[in-house]
Amino acid sequence: MKYFKLVLSLLLLLLIMSCKKGVPKAPSGYVVLSPEVAEILCALGAEADIVAITEECNFPPILASKPKVGSFSAIDKEAIIALNPAIIFASALEQEGQAAELKKLGYNVQVFYPKSLKSMNEEILKLGRLTGKINASQNMRLQMEAAVAAIKAKCANLPRPKVYLEIYRDPLMSVSDSSFVGELIEAAGGDNIFPTLERDYARVNPEAVINAKPDIMICFSQDSLNNIRSRKGWQDIPAIRNKRIYFEKDINPDLIQRATPRCIDGMRSLQKLFFQKDK
Amino acid sequence: MRNKITLALWLIFSITIVFIYLNIGSPSANIISQVRIPRLLLTLFTGMALAGIGSIYQLMLANPLAEPYILGISSGSAFGSILAGVSGFIILMPLGGFVGAGLTMLLVWKLAHQKGRFDKSRLLISGVIAGMFFAAGISLLMYLHLQDTALILGTLMGNLGRIFSSGEWLTFSILLAVSLLILAYLYFKSTAIDILSNGDIYAGSLGINVLHLRREVFLLTSIVIGICVAYAGIIGFVGLIIPHVVRFFIPSGQRRIYLFSLWAGAIFLLVCDMAAKHLLAIELPVGVITAFLGCPFFMWLLLRK
């Protein structure tokens, strides 16, 4: 009891001394949690304002030098708060909950999850407005629209090959036309064999794949060519008989799965695969 | 006479179900022989093995809540197979499952012995603990690999729609043959297991090598469960409820209970798989259907008798 007051006052003194006199810094810079937004912002010329990204933001390569605040699905909130950003750009899916929490803390959180070419163009304009790159965003939008129109015109009169995109093997999963990649396949002149599914990315029945007889198979499910060719009952599928199976080395998934300006390159590569003669 | 009619009706029902399963939606001959028959075999085998082993465990562990998954083998197997899957070796998932089952089996077996003596309660407790441990492992994998949720859920809720490449099919056929032999062998052990359920001393006095029998049954059933989970994932409910349902109709005699558990389990899972595929546009996890169909049926049976 004798030393109690002494110890207490010492502790209190320590506590007071450890407090720094902080001058509140005005919020500045962008924290980008979504790889898609990171690409668009860099394409708009706003990369200098990006103060932090997540591990998945791997394009353009210049971003590699930026500090990271966790990964797409495991975000380090304290690191974000320490940066005191002006705007936080998030995606939907796993980030929705995190974005809501950051919003509660008073941050300006903008959620971007374009699911079609049209909404991507709108979001590019919105990003332009938010970052003050209005002209650049308008130009980009016009360029994108022109490029998409040109790609569509190129294959307007060609017969559309039936396309099967496999994103998962066990269980088998594919994409519907209402997903972003599904729209790209259609725009590039392919005919997705699963136009409607319950979700954009959903489980499909192997029998349905066999019955649909796709001419082209794009395999992002890490299966090997030999394995696919020896799948039971798949030998009669034209894509497999004619060896028109394409893998990640043939077409970079990021080009067609991310809603960014690079999807134009993705569409061009898709078109090349669809209309080239047999391998 | 009445028994024979019931048996005949049951036989006709089973054959009809198999026929509908193969022909629903008028598929081509290629699909029937290459896709549906492999799936039919996997489903029948899984249902058989789960229900048959469930009936053995309930008797041997003297616990009506015992089921094939209670000794943790399934969790170990699921953990192994998911680990292989999320590491990018989807083709090797059955192998991972098999290794997981084997290691868990050895662990549980070791823990079940106290000073060299086997203990029934220890077996149950160590099985449950091993199961919990691997369940935590699976949760961790799920948390770390959110992008592979479909695969993990497929393993945890049952996935009978596996695609086989020809190599995988050969492996599965061999394992299937081995499992069927084991299940047949266990049938001939039924009487001994029945006697064992009356107590070790009683069984021993009748000339049964109690220790040896237990070890044998545990090892053999673990192998079969490992194969089941490796290919079909964890499908709950079948192993727990089907033996009880069978006992409603055949109150005693493990030989017949086992045989009819095999049969009813296979047909029940086939019906569930059919419902899972056709109930909604999207294919449902079969483990959900087994519980949805089985629970009300079991309640009805309880109320009736």
Structure in a nutshell:
The complex is a heterodimer of chains A (279) and B (305). Chain A has 279 residues and is an alpha/beta fold.
What this model shows, in words?
The complex is a heterodimer of chains A (279) and B (305). With 279 residues, chain A is of the alpha/beta class. Chain A folds into two domains: 30-113, Nitrogenase molybdenum iron protein domain (Rossmann fold, 3-Layer(aba) Sandwich), CATH 3.40.50; 155-275, Rossmann fold, CATH 3.40.50.1980. Chain A is built from twelve helices and ten strands. In chain A, α5 runs antiparallel to α6 (134-154) and α6 (134-154) packs parallel to α12 (263-275). The longest helix of chain A is centred in the middle third of the chain and has 21 residues, at 134-154. By secondary structure, chain B is mainly alpha-helical. Helices cover 77% and strands 1% of the residues of chain B. A two-stranded antiparallel ribbon of chain B has the order 1-2. In chain B, β1 (113-114) and β2 form a beta hairpin. In chain B, α2 (29-60) crosses α12 (254-278), α3 packs parallel to α10 (210-232) and α11 (238-249) packs across α12 (254-278). The radius of gyration of chain B is 19 Å and the shape is globular. The model of chain B has no long low-confidence stretch (mean pLDDT 87). At the A-B interface, α8 and α9 of A face α2, α6 and α7 of B.
